[in-house]
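ESCALATION

Customer reports they have been waiting on this structure for their group meeting. Please prioritize. Original submission:
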Amino acid sequence: MLLAVQATVPATPEWSPIVGIIISVSCLVVVLLTFNIEQPLVGSRIPILPISIPAFVGAMCFGHLIGVGIVLGLTNIGGI
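Update from on-call: job pushed to the front of the queue and completed.
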């Protein structure tokens, strides 16, 4: 059954510096967007950034999800 579905699965890209740059930029953009949240300092605070640790971890997780979506989308249309 898996062999029948294998033909319809799009190609998964290999890791390259371009993939790393895309995911890093998407994470940075999401971290910059967290400065607009209503209560960014709930929980333990990061000394370097004016956001809390839970907000930073959540932003990094969401940034990775957005970055993976961008990489898979660009791979699907032949951009990478």
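Sent to customer with the following note: The chain has one domain: 16-77.
Escalation resolved.
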